[in-house]
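Structure, all two chains, one model.
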Amino acid sequence: MEKRVVFRNNVLPYLLVAPQIIITLVFFIWPASQALLQSFLQEDAFGTSSAFIWFDNFADIFTSEEYLGSFRVTLVFSFAVAGIALSVALLLAVMADRALQAATAYKTLIIWPYAVAPVVAGVLWFFLFNPTVGMITFFLKKAGIAWNHTLNGPQAMTLVVIAAAWREISYNFLFFLAGLQAIPHSFIEAAAIDGAGPWRRFWTISFPLLSPTAFFLIVVNIVYAFFDTFGVIHAITRGGPNYATNILVYKVFNDGFINLDLGGSAAQSVVLMIVVISLTVVQFRFIERKVHY
Amino acid sequence: MMVEHRPVLTFVTHAVLILGALVLAFPIYITFVASTHSLEEVTRSFPLLPGSHLVENYLRALTVGPRDVGATVGTMMLNSLIMALGITFGKITISLLAAFAIVYFRFRLRMIFFWMIFITLMLPVEVRILPTYKVAADLKLLDSYGGLIFPLIASATATFLFRQFFMTVPDELCEAHRIDGGSPMQFFFDILLPMSRTSIAALFVILFIYGWNQYLWPLLITSDQKYYTLLIGIKRMLDVGEGQAEWHIIMAATILAMLPPVLVVIFMQKQFVRGMTETEK
């Protein structure tokens, strides 16, 4: 798409894009290329000398049990977050779509947790499940369940998944509801006249028509779980206990800033960049399809 | 939409929605309740109803601040606000200008710039934290408002949104303006900017929430309490080691940290929904 009518000026356009381009160069492209370069170097602890070591940093991380463990943890975490956030949101959206006039009121009640920061979501759930002062811990104990996510890996994972999925439900709800409300009324009516009940109508009409929205949301949710949940982990578990919730972004932070392993952290950054780039490409492909459809 | 009368299903519908809304609100309700009790009550008796220490706890958080953090919640809220507004206005301004240049001018590096902006989508702070930190350190941006704001204001989404919108502006407007001998910047300020009001409002809501909720970047670059944002402050309050965390104050601070973005979503819901759906396209 191009404009037919444009202004002619040789200097002005450069001045106009300059702020955006300078910020992009200084804070995006330069650091990213540094990460790329660093991932091929080995530096000593004082940063005084460095040697080019090709793919050794990558070989190191991909043979490190800790890194592979972190990859597995991230996959489990992401799919659990996306699965819960999508299914709960879909249920609520279908119900809200049925609620007619009340839909708007319910929408207000359901979308606001999205405004809560991931780290704050972490603090909220950490408080509820706190081993000493948590209310839910207290009731679980009464029900005979000993809860201590600081010692029990699966419990820690459950807690970070709940905290991360909680605010994402609102986001998915908004998109599912919009998708449902865009389905032409006549489709549903025609099916109803043919005798299809609500259950059957949902699975044969609404659900297939929602699939572009659902695919788009799956990608967005996975990106969210991979990259935006640092705050949740940092507030609740710090990757523990015993690396049970050590997701990749937390590990990059930890190796770079706490353990000061520059080459290893850079190689991990590069792997993460590849992940974001692939997910972004997938996301754009789905959106293209959504537009054509 | 409902095409037939099914009272049982209608009942189930509302029951599920009310239950869902309650479950979603539950953690925030409990946080609010905890913020109105004394520390003793919070840690001993698991209160379910608000207590009588609301004013006392919030006043202490806002003016004295929690133990061991060295900054009041009032100061930290101000820092969060400066960061959030700085990011919001910064992103909107530079994106408007860049989109204007890309849509309304032909120049040699146009497509290269376009792709450079696009790339920022693929490089969130999380994947380039160490080198970005180093750049900020070299530029003496650690512990400064500039450091909190500048690295976060490049935005491909806002630029694309404005580009998309500018493409729909009729060419006749620009043509007429040129025939009248107007300059490009006059066109920008007198015609494009007023026409972009609704897009700007929608973006404002989304970006304010984004800015207020930033966590990893402020965590990296602030070590001086003077520049702590509220989210960093809350995390520091929790890190008491073996000591007893001051839960009543932490919970008051948490409520205050949620208040601005949640109020924005509730009172600017229309713009929020618009912003969400438009920026994701």
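Residues 35-279 of chain B form a domain with the MetI-like fold fold (CATH 1.10.3720.10).
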